[in-house]
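Hi all, a correction to my earlier message: I attached the wrong file for RNA polymerase sigma-70 factor (Sigma-E family). Here's the right sequence:
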Amino acid sequence: MTAGTGFDEFVITRSQRLMRLALLLTRDHAAAEDLVQTALVKAWSAWRRIDEDPEPYVRRVLVNTFNSWWRRRWTAEHPTAVLPERAWSGAQGEVEDRDEVWRALTRLPRQQRAVLVLRYFEDLSEAQIAETLGVSAGAVKNYAAKGLAKLRLDPTLRELPEPHLTEQPAGTQRLVAVRGRIDRRRRLAVVGVVAAVVLAVVLGVLVAPRVNTSMPPAERRIGGFAEYHEGYHVVAVGKGTVTGPVTLTWVPASLDVGFFFHCTRPEKEDLHVTFSTVLFDGKPAPHGVTCNVNEPDNGYTWYTQAELAPLELRLGVPVTVTLTDPVPYDAHGGTHPVPATVPTDVNVAVALAEPVPFEQYPLPARPAHLTPLDKRLPSELNYTVLSADNPSATVSWGHLTVVYHTQTPGQLLLSVNGTLTQTQTWWDYKASGHVRDLRSGPGYDYEGPAVPDIPPGTPVTITIEARYLTGDWYVEMYPNK
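and the right structure:
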């Protein structure tokens, strides 16, 4: 923070600019005031650590708070689709113009709305917006382009002047309110510290696995497992052998879960073990989980929220997870010998992990130089190539092989005739291809809605949408004979 600029002075002299931003985001004076005060209270706790102009930091806190609170809190307070009229100063025509613009902004997704407000009303650069929202500059351009495109197609808009908000002096009224919140927060913090200590002793120390926090999140390990792996966050670890049940304690923050394994044995044979019974507080899950012996971070199996719903698990309530009844698993369809029983010298380490939204996932550090993609394709196959410059193509439908390539973390979404069919996600900078089959028919599993039964030879349009990617990418397709 700049010398001589204190928190009180900042609230009195600068908070009105934040109020203007909050009004543009929320379209409600009471909600905007609440948003500004909440952001200021959050910023107060970090005030001594702010070395430069504090306004960008507080602005970032405000926008992030808006993104996290809007659906959960403010929408619930305004259930009507028709927004009430606001008593703004100025001519009636100007009020109507502003109202039309704000109604159109309200219909945009939150990220698009935030980008347009910061760009055109706060006059921030793309780099500043990216820093405020915690996204890449490319994502800012994408959100802005999509938001403007939707506004251009909005039938309620016409040529309108830039909205103008009446500036009102903040005075000391907001400072008094913010200081009141800070005092309440201090009192609650005393109670919270005592409760946190008790909870840490009873639950955290006994249940939570130890994490090496001296490393960046993307590189940390927990109980021998990467804390973050393939879009998941490891939250509990258990160890044992196949001769007895393997147990772990899990405090659910999500009811979509995955399992990773380190199953080891002195013999280096090709062996797969399925724990056919998985119990959550003694209630059986719908299917077992499988690990591949002597293959680290293997045996990735997951349960969806729908699959665990009959078990009546509750978020925040500790659950004992038990893996038992190990049996040999034939992973090769009878082409390899499978032992009659599981060898008793197999050691088991299992990690339970919860999914993390991509925008919140701690990606590894970007390398100084990205590996160029090799786009040389064999001439003997009938290839169709999709890229950022050519994301859509019409092909003859049939059994297709799709190979996805990218330089950076992100997602590629494939749609057939407008129906999302496959989603391929990367969480690292390893430039490698991922091969997927693309076909329709009963029983074929997709990550998106299933493609309808399409007769072979029918022309279809295949489109690729890139999300979060900051480097080069392409997708190759060819008929699977």
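Sorry for the mix-up. The chain has a mean pLDDT of 77.
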